[in-house]
Write a structure and sequence with these properties.
By secondary structure, the protein is an alpha/beta fold. It is 43% helix and 15% strand. The chain is built from 28 helices and 19 strands. Strand 13, helix 8 and strand 14 form a beta-alpha-beta unit.
Amino acid sequence: MSAIAVLWRTDGGEARPHAARMLQALQIYGTHRQAIWSDGPVALAHALHRLVPEDRFDHQPLQAAGGTAVLAADLRLDNRDALIAALGIPTPEAARLADSDLVARAWERWGEDCLPRLVGDFAFAVWDARAKRVFCARSALGRRPLFFHRGNGFFAVATMPKGLLALPDVPKQLDEDRLAVFLAALPAAGADNPFAGSSFYKGIERIPPGSCLSFDGRDVSVREHWSPEHIAPVRFARDEDYVEQARVLFEQAVSSCLRATGPIGSNLSAGLDSSSVTVTAAELLAQRGERLTAFTAVPRAGEAEAILADRLADEGPGAAKIAAPHANVEHVRVPYPLISPLDPVARNLFAYDEPVRNVCNLAWIDEIGARARERHIAVMLEAPLGNATLSFDGFERLHELLAGGRLPSWLYEAAQFLRRRPLRQLIAHSLSGRDRNDLLRGVGKWWTRLDLRSPLAADSRAAMDERKAERLRGWSDERLNRGNRVRIIVYADPGTLVTGMLARHGFELRDPTGDRRFLEFCLALPLEQFYRDGQERRLVRRLMRGRLPDEILFSRLRGVQGVGWFRNMQLARGELREEIAAMSQSKLGSRLLDIPALERLLDDMPTEGGPKDLSYVAAYRHKVLLGAAAARFIRHVEGGN
């Protein structure tokens, strides 16, 4: 991984001193090598953290196209061989080329048309001297971030906001609207989302995932170069052909993620996605005589009680069964730490440059990160996009059958569905997306009510409710019908998380379930490949049959992590109350947060026992903790103690 920066002084001033300030701010993300290229008013900077073997050849920024183009890139290519073949590079020469060299040559050959040919995680910037423009691009799934600022007489790009905030003319001021969207848990990504290009700082914009930017000294233009919403369908003659092709692509995706300069780790739960990734990685590493360390978050002793009866509170035993057959896997159980919920928030703010959404999970993520760092893990495998690809449930097929007039097929599947699930779920999955949203709002589910789960003050809640309704009114029913699958992909922008984890713990997070080749294949499949004959998640259950224990493969229990969160809150109640009370000294915090309501909840919190019901989850895990984390972020940016 790398951190990159670009500065173009459109007023003709000298760029290098300012680029040096940006590089100094960003070097926590690239400690192995730093360099700057400059030519009067233009400068590109690069800070490298070596993570793949070919990084030893990296010498960015790179000059290309006969010296008329200069490139700085943060990337890992997963299709090196295909790209080398397409470029006609001899094998001996290719062995001495970094991934950035290949992108530079691809730019020389195809210009912007190189983007569909690049598979992997990337963010790069090119200074095109002939066209007098800056061009930037991010890969499809956004696992490398890129931000920009257009100022008076200059244009700047950086991997993280701190690279831009290092410039004296870039204001360090929070964007209230963006913070309100965050606190309402509304999506801030997607092609038609007005916040897709926003950051938490006024004047600093984000290049969205799968998008590219061009600046010619006058105008900034941003466009999509990839979208998951327009994938052509795939049809095979035989049912088993789908599974075989999925196996080939999934193993390719996992194998691509194993290219590293150090040991490999994985986040292993008792769920389908992380277990499939871990088992496949273990099998591939065993062929190379290498080991895998699998980390599982578990409850503290005596706290393995689920919040809901149908949830799995302790995933340790299930994860152990997954790891046991593989002699090259070290399984490490990591108990939930007994700490103040604000401790990991404070430790991570500088690395992430943004507030923390799921405070409860950050506690165990940080603890696993510390254990991984002790073992010098270079790459940590995860599977956040598995629910949209590998283990997609396929329930959208129920609506597809009904809306398509295939009533006999729907009646058959409905009967199978009701053998295991309640009628209300059948109705919800059979409705159109618009009707489903109306139903959820009508019954007042807690996750649809901002007053129950958001720390926003009343005026801000009302504004966010209207903003959400306005966006949904503008969507076609067809688009809403796609349910969670495409929205999980479109709304995700994990770039700052991936980059922040590198700075905090020294490893790169990689997600094989988000490999573009595998993801596009899964999106192209007929829905019956995921749901048929009352069996959901058919793809992963056929793909991993015999490789995962049956009790894991066919379990319908969902894990719940961070079981000790309520006890941690009880012990830190005084600190949490002080953090929220401090917002009365902040104009932004006192306007944005419902401070009296948050203080009342903390005053009424019982000193013993666990959360009583889901209302406690909404009030404390979501409302209070999110409010306290936002308060800490606001003070961090505003410079408070």
